[in-house]
């Protein structure tokens, strides 16, 4: 545990693995059994869990991303959290999404932060030549979803 963040998050009762990330899509509409099976099957996550169940996964929280949709799910002792997206939301809310974790309470709070979307769009117009990609990016920023 040479990583200072790992030391800060691990006190014997609360565990967090920062060295072996889980890669792949984890959608909020998956059933609990599907989520557990997905986590258990990931070799690079090095979980010592039997396929199909979350009770043997040795972590309290798994933070995931990639879908840009904030969600929280409790699977036995395991809590699964997607903090959402700072700049490409997919849930219909254009504001930046973040998650606050209270390790003492083992609770999660989602927050939204408004920012100057028009300023970001102005900068994107200077950087992106592909009009299709630019239009998609602007829609995501303005409306928080693909149109």
UniProtKB/TrEMBL annotation:
Report what the protein is called: Calcineurin-like phosphoesterase domain-containing protein
Q: Which Pfam families match?
A: Metallophos_2
Show the coiled coil region(s).
none
Stretches assigned to the Calcineurin-like phosphoesterase domain: 44-105
